[in-house]
Amino acid sequence: TSQHNQFSEDIQPTLQDLVEGMKDDAQLWNELLWSSGGALELPKCFYQILYWEFSKGKPFLTCTADTNIEIKTTKGEEIKIDHLSPYATRKMLGHSVGPSISRKKRIQHLQAIIAKHQHYLVQQKLTREETWTYYHSVYTPSVNFSLPNSSFPAKVLYAVERKIRPILLPKCGFKRYTAKEIIYGPWELGGAMFKSLYGEQVLGNIQQILQYLRSKPSLHQTLLRIAIYWA
């Protein structure tokens, strides 16, 4: 993954400057991989350009369909790298990312993950201990994986996890329709100590912000600090 933020001396690079920079990087990495006995896996290679042009102070994404990136192999053959629209959604490290991805698509993806766990729990005869182990070691990590990078409302996440509760709770020794206050409450107060998706999302958001603010200083970090101070 290579990202280009080519701004220096307050001069905005042209679209062609960005394309040439990415072409040079792609050619370099192709040669580095070849020298070590490897090669680019072309089906996984693509490029996506987010290039804004401003009109009366408002940014607009520019269509980049007419751009082209080709690299040369050691045999002199030219290979074309696939181009993705600025509005296309791509999957990276388990996350669906893209400037135009809708909240509805993210929710559908989360619902599909929960549905797989729901189907597994229905088919398997697990004891309480086995169900608790499955919940903490398998279900929770897979469902919560992308939540730190999300911003779903509480009502939406409660509705998403509502379908699996009638299946999960009895296997853990609780009634199907136990009140939420008991389900997500701590052991010390008689709760079941389940983790709500919304709570995990907020916790993940806060942890990511703190990790970023405490990392090596950068221009983006400074801008984030300014935004927080002004909030």
Report on the structure:
This protein has 231 residues and is mostly helical. 46% of the residues lie in helices and 11% in strands. The protein has helices at residues 15-35, 103-123, 128-144, 154-161, 165-171, 180-183, 197-213, 219-230, and strands spanning 46-48, 52-55, 58-61, 70-72, 78-80, 82-84, 90-92, 95-97. The strands form four sheets. The protein has a two-stranded parallel ribbon. Helix 2 (103-123) packs antiparallel against helix 3 (128-144) and helix 2 (103-123) runs parallel beside helix 4 (154-161). The two termini are 32 Å apart. The mean pLDDT is 82.
Question: What would a concise description of this structure say?
Answer:
The protein is mainly α and 231 residues long.
Ordered list of secondary-structure elements with their pairings:
Blueprint: H1 15-35, E1 46-48, E2 52-55, E3 58-61, E4 70-72, E5 78-80, E6 82-84, E7 90-92, E8 95-97, H2 103-123, H3 128-144, H4 154-161, H5 165-171, H6 180-183, H7 197-213, H8 219-230
Parallel strand pairs: 1-6
Antiparallel strand pairs: 2-3, 4-5, 7-8
Secondary structure class reads mainly alpha
Query: Quick one: how many beta strands?
Result: 8
User: What sequence of helices (H) and strands (E) makes up the elements?
Assistant: HEEEEEEEEHHHHHHH
Sum up the overall morphology in one term.
elongated
- Strand percentage, roughly? 5-15%
